[in-house]
Design goal:
Structural class of chain A: alpha+beta
CATH superfamily of the largest domain in chain A: Cytochrome-c3 Hydrogenase, chain B
Order of helices and strands of chain B: HEEHEEEEHE
Strand order of the largest sheet of chain A: 3-2-1-9-10
Largest sheet of chain B: 5 strands, mixed
Protein name (chain B): NADH-quinone oxidoreductase subunit C
Shape of chain B: globular
Strand content of chain B: 25-35%
CATH topology of the domain at 18-134 in chain B: Beta Polymerase, domain 2
CATH class of the largest domain in chain A: Mainly Alpha
Strand order of the largest sheet of chain B: 1-2-5-4-3
CATH architecture of the largest domain in chain A: Orthogonal Bundle
Radius of gyration of chain A: 22 Å
Structural class of chain B: alpha/beta
Oligomer: heterodimer
Number of strands of chain B: 7
Number of helices of chain B: 3
Organism (chain B): Dethiosulfovibrio marinus
Strand content of chain A: 15-25%
CATH superfamily of the domain at 18-134 in chain B: NADH:ubiquinone oxidoreductase Nqo5 subunit
Helix content of chain B: 10-25%
Chain lengths: ~425, ~190
């Protein structure tokens, strides 16, 4: 009988939006993952520390650069926290514009994620289709703000860019475009038997685990938890527009809590966002777009504010929470805490990894939607003999794709 | 006995209004609650109150009891611990959500503040109740030097392995990072 050996295998660093390329240390027995330990912290940038040297308006620019995909969500969560601490009311038109940009951001983030998930399992045609579709919403963001990544739309007490009739038309065009075109992408992906076989029952997070480990957004909804900040604690335009959390049991009648369910939730959320956007555009009220357009006056108001504020919004990956402390007679922010959704979702990773195959690891890492731009290599170490070998990202992807090919062959046979 | 934090999805949640909950907690904790503030928010075009946030400050020794009390109504969804160095003590703000998966407009944000004195930098860990607190408690530990009693894994989470463990980045006293650790790029 051959002896069973457990290998320790680190995957990472994986860049996760806010501040930490995460390393996943996997305990491997053959191809099976027995346990996992997560170690973030490879490039902590200390944005919270940097904020102490800046006034609230300057911190907006820091907040926007916390993440390259949900840049607007972080800026909104931060300004909401400041508005809470300083008791500033936001005009209704500005609230609607904020919700509009949040939905645009959700569409682009979810389409990007679905495309990358297809790429990971080797379904490249769907990946390219997804990337092509995503360009439309990027064009709308550019038409509104002139930028594709950091839109610089929000400020404390309102927004900086108004929705002109021309922008309104591009948004309506986009809604029309996605209603016609998006189905070709998601039907190709979710109805494909190989995709289904590859994503079903992989990286399972049960409903109870999702609650206990405080998973958020599509990660928790994929596990069947009916939770969405836009629904349970509505803010801005969502107070007027009903948003129902998208959970797999409403669409397929069952909850698996696997990567497939997380895929499904994101796809249906894109369609939901289109409906929300349409209602926002229809109900966009007239009026001012900011509480105080002059930055100097705004800073004077903020300088008088004292207290702790809290902002929590539904970002594409889950609720994004910011807390901020302001001190009277002090221009700079006293303290600031950012809690990006991945911060919470990463706690559930070890549970998802357990008893899965190594070839599924990239898929599981992907399924909570971190930004893996920095995931470059992993080191394979044999603890008994002390040898180490480096496996590149390409090798890991190859492994993942080979499993898809094998699945496809098995299904044909 | 039923696990106080049993979060089984079908368990009945005891939905109370924010004011009822504030009154209940005040009744249970009495003088241990030193600050209670219920903030109402009105957003959207209806002009009605659309969400609430309950802020409280509780004595350090009652933190676990407080979380257990919240757990009688619903599993408290944990967001994050934030905080600040305020001279002789460190204020930690624990941000929770109650009734997160109940109904539209019902969720209640609850923030509870604990003052941890500098001469006894310890606080009970919530890990036994809510395993999702792990990263946040480890972060507070490395950034403020507050020890969480009962937290099984106390390894660094965000700081590099070769970090000087005597330096706490978010402190404002002699243990704060010195000039040598701060690089001004502007």
């Amino acid at each position: 009988m051959s002896e069973t050996k457990t290998y320790k295998l680190p995957i990472g660093p994986v860049h996760v939006g806010l501040k930490e390329p995460i390393t996943a240390w996997l305990d491997i027995e053959g191809e099976h993952i027995k346990d996992a330990v997560i170690r973030p912290g490879a490039i902590h940038r200390g944005v919270e520390f940097m904020a102490r040297e800046r006034n609230p308006i300057q911190v907006i620019y820091l907040a926007e650069r916390v993440c390259g995909i949900c840049s607007f969500s972080h800026a909104i969560a931060f300004v909401k926290a400041v508005e809470d601490a300083a008791q500033i009311e936001v005009p209704i038109r500005a609230q609607y514009i904020r919700s509009m940009v949040l939905e645009l951001e959700r569409i682009h983030s979810h389409i990007l994620w679905s495309g990358v998930a297809c790429y990971t399992i080797g379904f490249d045609s769907a990946f390219h289709l997804g990337m092509m579709l995503r360009e439309k919403v990027m064009d709308v963001l550019e038409a509104l703000s002139g930028n594709r990544v950091n839109y610089a739309v929000t400020t404390v007490g309102g927004v900086r860019w108004d929705v002109t009739p021309a922008v309104e038309r591009t948004v309506m065009d986009m809604i029309h475009y996605y209603r016609n075109e998006f189905a070709s992408f998601y039907e190709a992906a979710i109805n494909d038997p190989v995709v289904r076989a590859r994503l079903r029952d992989v990286g399972v997070l049960t409903t109870e685990q999702a609650i206990k480990y405080c998973a958020l957004g599509p990660t928790s909804r994929g596990s069947g938890v009916r939770a969405d900040v836009r629904w349970s604690a509505p803010y801005d335009a969502y107070c007027d527009i009903h948003v129902e959390p998208v959970v797999p049991q409403d669409y397929t009648g069952e909850v698996h809590g696997d990567v497939y369910d997380r895929f499904l939730v994101r796809v249906y959320e894109v369609l939901q966002s289109l409906d929300i956007l349409e209602k926002i555009m229809e109900g966009l009220p007239e009026g001012p777009i900011t509480f105080e357009p002059k930055v100097n006056k705004l800073l004077t108001v903020l300088k008088k504010a004292e207290g702790v504020g809290y902002g929590c919004i539904e970002a594409p990956r889950g609720d994004d929470t910011h807390a901020v402390g302001l001190k009277a007679q002090q221009e700079n922010v006293q303290w600031w805490k950012v809690r990006a959704p991945t911060y919470s979702n990463a706690v559930s990773w070890p549970l998802m990894f357990k008893d899965n195959e190594l070839a599924d690891a990239p898929l599981i890492i992907n399924s909570i939607d971190p930004c893996i731009s920095c995931m470059e290599r992993m080191v394979l170490s044999d603890t008994s003999s002390g040898t180490k070998s480096v496996v590149t990202k390409a090798d890991l992807l190859k492994l993942c794709r080979e499993k898809t090919d094998k699945t496809r062959r098995l299904m044909r046979a | 006995m039923l696990d106080p934090m049993d979060c089984f999805i079908d368990r009945e949640k005891v939905v109370k209004t924010p004011q009822e909950l504030a009154d209940h907690l005040q009744g249970v904790f009495g003088d241990d609650l030193s600050y209670v503030d219920l903030r109402d928010f009105s957003e959207g075009s209806s002009g009605e109150v659309t969400s609430h946030h309950l802020w409280m400050t509780i004595g350090k020794s009652r933190l676990l009891d407080f979380v257990d009390e919240l757990g009688k109504f619903d599993f408290p969804n944990f967001h994050v611990v934030s905080g600040d160095d305020e001279g002789d003590h460190i204020s930690l703000y624990y941000h929770f959500d109650l009734y997160r998966a109940v109904e539209r407009g019902v969720s209640l944000h609850v923030t509870v503040c604990v003052h941890v004195p500098k001469d006894d930098l310890t606080v009970d860990s919530l890990f036994s109740r809510i395993p999702g607190v792990e990263y946040s408690e480890r972060e507070i530990q490395e950034m403020f030097g507050v020890d969480h009693i009962g937290l099984p894994n106390k390894a660094l989470v965000f700081l590099p392995d070769d970090w000087n463990r005597e330096v706490f980045p978010w402190r404002r006293d002699e243990t704060a990072p010195g000039e040598d650790l701060v690089e001004d790029l502007s």
